[in-house]
Amino acid sequence: MEPIRIAIVGVGKIARDQHIPAIESTPAFSLAATVSPNHRGPEGIPHLDSLDELLEKGPAVDAVALCTPPQVRYDLAVQALKRGIHVFLEKPPGATLSEVVALRERADKVGVTLFASWHSRFAAGVAPARAWLSDRTVHKVSIVWREDVRVWHPGQDWIWEPGGLGVFDPGINALSILTHILPQPVFMKNARLSIPENRAAPIAADIDFADAGGAPIHMDLDWRQTGPQSWDIVVETDAGTCKLSQGGAVLTLPSGTEHNEDLEYPGLYSRFGNLIRGGRSDVDIDPFRLVADAFLRGHRQIVEPFHD
Amino acid sequence: MEPIRIAIVGVGKIARDQHIPAIESTPAFSLAATVSPNHRGPEGIPHLDSLDELLEKGPAVDAVALCTPPQVRYDLAVQALKRGIHVFLEKPPGATLSEVVALRERADKVGVTLFASWHSRFAAGVAPARAWLSDRTVHKVSIVWREDVRVWHPGQDWIWEPGGLGVFDPGINALSILTHILPQPVFMKNARLSIPENRAAPIAADIDFADAGGAPIHMDLDWRQTGPQSWDIVVETDAGTCKLSQGGAVLTLPSGTEHNEDLEYPGLYSRFGNLIRGGRSDVDIDPFRLVADAFLRGHRQIVEPFHD
C-alpha cells in the first residue's frame, strides 16, 4: 500500500517537536510538504508559504495536519475538505465548538476523513486505565495540572487571545483523558477562572465537575508553577485507586505501577492512517465542550498581569 | 386518552405568564401541582414547596415542566428522570452544555421523554420561513434583538450570575430561530461582549457568525433599549428577502406579510405531548452551543455598572 502523502500546515513548536518525527517514523505516511509563512520544515522536503500555494502548485497530497493556532484552523480545514483532502486537527480542534461541528458535518457529507486529535489519550497509561475503570464505581476524582507557561508556551501570544484557551490549553489534555477513562459522562458544575489583567485568557482555574453518578471531580489548573511540574489524575473507586501521572504516561493501580515509553504522536498517526483507510472520521468534542462550559459558567477574577 | 398529569416547578414570571395558561388550554395535559418555595400557583391546584415533597407526598404526576432559573435545573431533571417522569426544560436547557448532554444520555437510557424547549421556534412566522428558505441560497443575515431588561427581567439577579446568560437570555431565542430556519449549519466567528462592571454577564453583544456556505451573519444584542423594542431577523437570499419581526410572529416574504396569533407555548405543549405519546425526546443544543462559543471566544469589555 502506497504511503499517505501528508503536508504539515503550521511549522511551530508542536510540529517540529512531535508531528514531523511521528510522521517520519510511521510507515503509513510520507511527509510530502511543509507549509508556513514563517518557519521552514526539514531540509529536502518541499516547503510552501500557504495552503493556497500548496493546492495550486503541489506537490499533491492526500492529507494535511493542521498545526496552526486554533483561530485559523476552520478556514484551512474547509479548503482541504473541499478538495477531498483528509484533515488531522491538532488540539483544540478549533476556536469554537460550532465550527468543529460544522466541519464534522461537512466531512461526513463529502466522505473525507476528519480527525480531531487528543494526543494525551494516546499516553501509555490511558488505555489500561480506561479498561480497568470500565466496570468500577467511581467515588471521587482529583486532577492537578500545574506547569510553567514560560517553559511550555514561550512567546505564544495567540494562546492568551480569545480563541486561545489560556491554561485550558494544557487543561484540555487532562479533560481528554478524563472523558476517555471514566465510564459515565462528565459535566461541569462550577469554575473560578483567574485572568491576568493584561490578558484575555485564564492563567489558572479551579473547577468542579461531576460524573452522571454524582462523583465529585476537582481540577486544579495553574500555569504559574515553577520547579517540579504536575500532570496527575487520581481516580478513587470501589476497588481502590487508579493514578495516572506524568500526563498519562505512568499508571499506578492497586496491583502496581507501569511505566511505558511515550508514543503519543505515533499513536495518533497510526489512528489517523486507520481512519483514512477505513473511510471514517473521529471528532469527539467532549473535552472542548467542558472547556466552553467553564468559560460560559465560570466566575472570573482578575489577577496580576502576566509578562512573558 | 387520559390527560398527562404535569407539575410546574418554579412559579416565576414565565410560569405565570405562559406555562399555566398554555397547560390549561391544552387538552393533552392537566395541571396536577405547582412547586415553589416562594410563589403559589393558581387557586385550587395542589402546591408543594419542593420537588422532593411532591415526589414523596404526591399528587402523582407523569411529567414536570422546569421553569426555575437554569442553574438548578440539572438536579431537578435527574430527580424526575430517575422516577420515570418526563421533563420539559425551559430555555436555556441548563447552565452548561455538558449537563444537558448528560441529561439527554440519561433520558435515552431510561426511555423517558426529555424536551429542551425553544419557544421562539413556535412563533407563527418561523415554520413558513423555514419552509421558504429550505431551497434558497443565503447571502447575508442580520439579527437585531434590542430590548429593555428592566421591563422583561425586573429584579432577576440570577440572569446576571454565571450560568445566567445576560443579554443572551433573549439572544438565544434569536439563535433558536436562526438555527431552525437556515438550510446550513451556523458557526461563530467573533464576538464582543459588553459586561457591566458590577455584573458577571453581558448587557450587550455584537457577534459575527457565518453559515457553512460562507454567508455572513451579524447579531446585535442590547438590553439597554428603551422605547420601541426590536426583535428582527432579516435573511437576504438569491430569491429576495425574508424578514421575521416581533420575535418571529410576523413574516414578510417577497410575496407579502403574514401576521398570526401568538401560539408559542401552546405549540410547545402540543409538541411535548406528542413526544411523550411517541416515546421520544427532543434535545437540540445548537442555540446554546453558539452562546457558549460567544463566551469562549468573545472579547470582553467592561462597561458602566447596571442597577435594576
Automatic annotation (TrEMBL), chains A, B:
InterPro entries hit by this protein:
Gfo/Idh/MocA-like_OxRdtase_N, Gfo/Idh/MocA_oxidrdct_glycsds, NAD(P)-bd_dom_sf
Q: Which GO terms describe its molecular function?
A: nucleotide binding
Family matches, as Pfam families:
GFO_IDH_MocA
The Gfo/Idh/MocA-like oxidoreductase N-terminal domain is annotated at 4-115
Tell me which PANTHER family the record gives.
BCDNA.GH03377 (PTHR43818), DEHYDROGENASE (PTHR43818:SF7)
- What is the protein name given in its UniProt record? Galactose 1-dehydrogenase
